[in-house]
Amino acid sequence: MQDIQEIFNKVKEIKKEQKDIREEYKDMLAQADDYEVIVDKATELREKKKQLEAIVQQKMGMRWQRMEDLKLEIEKLNEMISDIAITSVAEGKPISITDEYENEYEPVYKVVFRKVK
Asked: What's this model's pTM, rounded to 2 decimal places?
C-alpha cells in the first residue's frame, strides 16, 4: 500500500495542474467574441428567474414556509441517522435500514481531511 502522504502530495500536484488549466480556459473564454454578451444575458435571466420565484413563494405563503421547515427537519433527521449509524458501528452492532418496498440500504462511509488551523 502506498504512503498516505505520497498520495496526498500527488492530489495536491494534480489540483495545481487542474487550476492552471482552468485559468487558461477562463482566459480563452474571455477572448471569445460573444462570450461576454451571453454571460450578461444569462445573468439577466437568472435575476428574472429569482424575482419570479420570490413572487410565487410569497403567494404560497405558509405552504412555502412549511416546505422550508420540512427541509430543515429532513436535514436534522438525516444527521441523527448518521450519528446512530456511527455509534452502532463503533459498538459492533449491525446496521439495517429498509424502505416501504423492502429495499435494503447500507451505510456509506467517507473520510475527508481538512486543514488544521
From this structure: 0.67
